[in-house]
């Protein structure tokens, strides 16, 4: 927010000086249009400037037609608003231009005349204000890479803490856990998704920028973590049904401890997946439950491992697989 305020101040100041230099009337309008045009990403700035310019020019000509036809009356402005605003609002391209269009139209109404000189003046105000906003947007956008790395580390740290808590609960079902790590992980992922979108929108020439794949990596990464967090929530639902310590719970706890250690790898090695399959086979070879309570607890642990399989499948789809990397290295 601080960077955006500074950029807005620079754009407004440049537009005001330019408006005074070109003799535009009123030059303050150029500063106002510059303030409206500054955005948080390069792509949004480009879309914003285009939408506002097109909407304002179309609104200018339509309002001029109404003023010439009906005269300069307050109710003429009302007719303009009733007709133009719904059209602009329905257009995804021009919705952002409603305010700037109104600013230009009110200038024409204040002058109470429609001349070629006045229309050119209004168009130059648009070019000056929105142009400087676009220039400032293109000159500098804060980098998100460092913050994305921090959010990744935080997410993985919280995931690891969650899995360790799950392992402790399987061994000691009476353990009380407030779920704080789950909430923190959700906040970190949400912010990561937002910053990844901002980082991607700051790329103009996607096909020519070598780091576009890096930006997409962050989007894919936090998308993966969001899906996995949903899966973890389902696992915790099953874990809540484990109210006694069983040998099966001890074996499952070891699995979650191993999973906590594999979180930071960019490569899907499949070690935990293989261990889960072996554990499933081992469960099938064990004697049947002796009591209803044991049956319910073992069923909950079994469903827990089934949801763990879903968690791992998400990582398998979105992470690089070890075998694929080996094959690529051989091909090179």
Topology, element by element:
Elements (H helix, E strand, L loop, with lengths): L1 H21 L4 H11 L4 H29 L3 H17 L7 H14 L4 H24 L5 H27 L8 H22 L10 H28 L7 H15 L5 E2 L2 H15 L6 H27 L1 E2 H10 L1
Parallel strand pairs: 1-2
CATH topology category name of the largest domain: Four Helix Bundle (Hemerythrin (Met), subunit A)
SS class: mainly alpha
The CATH class name of the largest domain reads Mainly Alpha
Strand order of the largest sheet: 1-2
Task: Return the average pLDDT rounded to an integer.
Answer: 83
Portion in helices: over 70%
Share in β-strands:
under 5%
Cα separation of the termini: 46 Å
Largest sheet: 2 strands, parallel
- Count of domains: 2
Which descriptor suits the 3D outline? Answer: elongated
Q: Judging by the overall fold, what is the CATH architecture of the largest domain? A: Up-down Bundle
Unreliable runs: 321-332
Gyration radius over CA: 30 Å
Question: Helix tally?
Answer: 13
- Give me the CATH superfamily of the largest domain: Putative aromatic acid exporter, C-terminal domain
What does this structure look like?
The chain has 2 domains: 1-139, no CATH class; 144-330, Four Helix Bundle (Hemerythrin (Met), subunit A) (Up-down Bundle). 78% of the residues lie in helices and 1% in strands. It is built from 13 helices and 2 strands. Strands 1-2 form a two-stranded parallel sheet.
């Amino acid at each position: 927010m601080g960077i955006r305020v500074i950029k807005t101040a620079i754009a407004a100041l440049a537009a005001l000086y330019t408006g005074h230099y070109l003799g535009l009337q009123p030059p303050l309008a150029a500063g106002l249009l510059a303030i409206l045009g500054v955005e948080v990403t390069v792509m949004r700035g480009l879309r914003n400037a285009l939408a506002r310019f097109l909407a304002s020019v179309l609104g200018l000509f339509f309002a001029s037609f109404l003023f010439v036809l009906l005269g300069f009356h307050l109710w003429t402005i009302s007719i303009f608003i009733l007709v133009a605003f719904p059209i602009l609002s329905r257009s995804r391209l021009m919705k952002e231009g409603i305010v700037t269009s109104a600013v230009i139209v009110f200038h024409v109404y204040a002058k109470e005349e429609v001349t070629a000189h006045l229309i050119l003046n209004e168009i130059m105000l648009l070019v000056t204000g929105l142009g400087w906003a676009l220039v400032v947007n293109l000159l500098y956008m804060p980098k998100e890479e460092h913050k994305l790395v921090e959010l990744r580390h935080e997410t993985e740290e919280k995931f690891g803490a969650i899995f360790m808590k799950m392992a402790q609960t399987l061994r000691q079902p009476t353990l009380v856990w407030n779920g704080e790590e789950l909430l923190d992980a959700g906040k970190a992922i949400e912010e990561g998704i937002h910053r990844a979108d901002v980082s991607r929108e700051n790329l103009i020439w996607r096909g020519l920028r070598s780091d576009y794949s890096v930006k997409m990596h962050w989007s894919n990464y936090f998308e993966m973590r969001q899906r996995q967090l949903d899966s973890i929530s389902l696992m915790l639902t099953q874990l809540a049904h484990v109210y006694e310590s069983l040998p099966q719970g001890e074996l499952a706890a070891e699995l979650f401890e191993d999973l906590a250690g594999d979180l930071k790898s960019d490569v899907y090695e499949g070690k935990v997946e293989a261990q889960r399959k072996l554990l499933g086979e081992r469960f099938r070879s064990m004697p049947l439950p002796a009591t209803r309570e044991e049956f319910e607890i073992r069923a909950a642990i079994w469903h827990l491992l089934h949801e763990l399989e879903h968690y791992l499948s998400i990582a398998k789809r979105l992470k690089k697989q070890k075998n694929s990397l080996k094959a690529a290295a051989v091909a090179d």
